[in-house]
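The following block was generated as part of the benchmark described in Methods. Ligand: zinc ion.
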Amino acid sequence: MDHQPNLPYADVALQIPAIESYQYAVPPLLEDAIVPGALVRVPVKGGERSGCVLRRTAEKKAKRHKSVMERLTPDFRLSPELLTLGGWMAEYYMCGLGEALQCISFIGFKDVRTLSVKKYGAADEAAALHALSHERLTDKQRAVLEFFLQAPQGAWTAEDIQESTNSSRAVTLGLVKRGLARERRETVRREDDYPTAEGIEPPLKLTEEQSAAFQRIIENLDAQRFGAHLLHGVTGSGKTEIYLQAIGRTLEQGRQAIVLVPEISLTPQTIERFRKRFGARVGVYNSALNIGQKYDLYLAIQRGEIDIVIGARSAVFTPFPRLGLIVIDEEQEASYKQDSAPRYHARDVALMRASKTDAAVIMGTATPSLEAYRNAEAGKFALLCLRQRPNAAPLPPVRLIDMQREAMINRNTGLFSLELIEEVNRRLEAGEQSILFLNRRGYNPIVMCRECGYRCSCEHDDILLTYHKRRNMLVCHLCGQAIPMPSRCPQCESKAFHAIGMGTERIEEEVAEAFPGAKCLRIDLDTTSSKFSYLEKWREINEGGVDIILGTQMIAKGFDLPRVTLVGVVMADVSLFQPDFRASERTFNLLTQVAGRAGRRDKEGLVCVQTYCPDHFSILCAQKHDYAAFYNREIRYRATLRLPPHTRLIGLLITGADPDQTQRMARVLRGVIDRVIRAGVDDALATALGPAPAAVAYINKKYRWRLLLRGGKPSVMRSIVSRALADFEQHNPRSRTHITIDVDPLDLM
Ligand code: ADP
Ligand code: ZN
């Protein structure tokens, strides 16, 4: 099928922005090796690079051609389906095709080999038995031979033998020399380090709600057609059980399934749950694997040994030839969006991929993103709801603690209210655990009046202004409006008007002060880098007498902690006060997730939320576990401001070493975009916003400004951006700035 003799050239995508491919000649020796999807090394000006073959062609694109040097990882190949997906990504996310393919390819554009090791076993059972009774052997040789004879066909590495018989490799080699043992090279699969389990756990009997949802899903699965399902249910409502059964159904049809989970949920516990149902057919793919492990997983998939892959974002590219199902757990999670090129969103790629391969998609979450829920309302996704928890554990009550009152009435300006301290103490006495949750997100602080609670927001778009110390200004990160920092509160004239925010260090000190003698454990991204430390931390929490767990996002999910009966959110406002139009959504999600942590077992849990805005709807809705109320209010707010999901955004980040130059170029680019829009485009909603300083306004000696293009039609928006950039580059060839494009940005960088 792939044999294309007499096509003398190969178009090769390299990892370079913007340019689709370069053309090379195919040397006769590589005639059969250079097929679409093959990885190759090619010469470029001043060196060599690796890339991916797109096609063989007779159509000459250059005057003279250099030749492909070699094929990399000869057993690896991107399928036509994934090559096409790469083309879509490059177009949609406005990145280079090579950049997209490099990301799609399980092993990048690398040259990888299988690992083989020498293994030893008995050469011949009868001869070995004979030798044991009739020949002179040392004790060690005897031990090794006897070990081999326990499984005469078996083969072991020198390390295995050493471990079981305490004999060195030399002993085994002696046996080989005498013809009693054999040596052979065997390819070994470099496995992931997650726990293994045999498939032992049978499916549960679904509840009525679960089974109604499941029926809808299998309608599409059985018909082998594309269908997107939004499975909306709180933590513990039995979503995972539905995933498991849908996967089971997919396998029965001889098809394969991908399960995406947020990076921080990729815990041994999660993997174990799937392996208990499906055993060794479950593979894990994530960035923590080394390249050898990734390659061996690819080969295992090729051999048909693996038909379920669980992983973070990039597992969406798992090269299954018969993809039947993609599950996306916690669909709203920001970690599904990649923050370097290609800046893709795994949910959206999953939907695109599934629609092309007639696969079903299940997006499960307690707090759907506004984008997903709106699609469900519009009928693009089937909405499936789980309202009850199968084990009937009630959702914990959520108590709001007004920190402004705390300051005024209790004269307590510490981090912890008296009420929260009392609740923690009660847990300490009962030998139960508490989680104290802090959210350290945020680059520039919000300023707030400690007396009246007043905060400054932008008069154009209602976004909270953030404090920029360098310029002593308050700045809107959406439209760029900036005002001088007031010295007193504009509302009550109090002098207690300053930046809020806190570090983990301060909280640790205050915890030590408030709860002397309690054993605390801190968990956040800095202290928990590898997958092993997850397991260690989990053990320490459950077996090591930990009383109080301090943490960030990490502990909002992933961990299933049976002894936790209290969750305290130290300052809900840290996420609420983000200068981002998604701040309310994030706060609601976070509080809902955190609430799901308490009372998962038999004991009743309690959630205490400390806040300066106990009346804010995102906090009130989270308190009532009322997603619908939250959605209805938030979706109207987004409509008035013409923000996603009513519109689409493309972010442009302009960076440069010179502060004035960079700002000026950002303004120039804005002007160019305005001209392109005025020149008449087919998108009534197209407008530009900014430039505004990026949330991180200065980093790595670069100043960063942000522009946003808002519109209704992605294809028109992309053409506005490419036309504007072409024009900008033509007229400002030496702008000394760099421009990054982010389609559907989640984070206003
Ligand atoms: P979620 O994925 O929504 O958090 P899970 O699928 O993990 O929920 O289910 C939560 C708990 O309820 C688990 O302990 C699970 O074993 C149990 N469970 C789920 N479905 C059923 C069922 N149909 N019958 C009994 N227990 C169930
Ligand atoms: Zn503004």
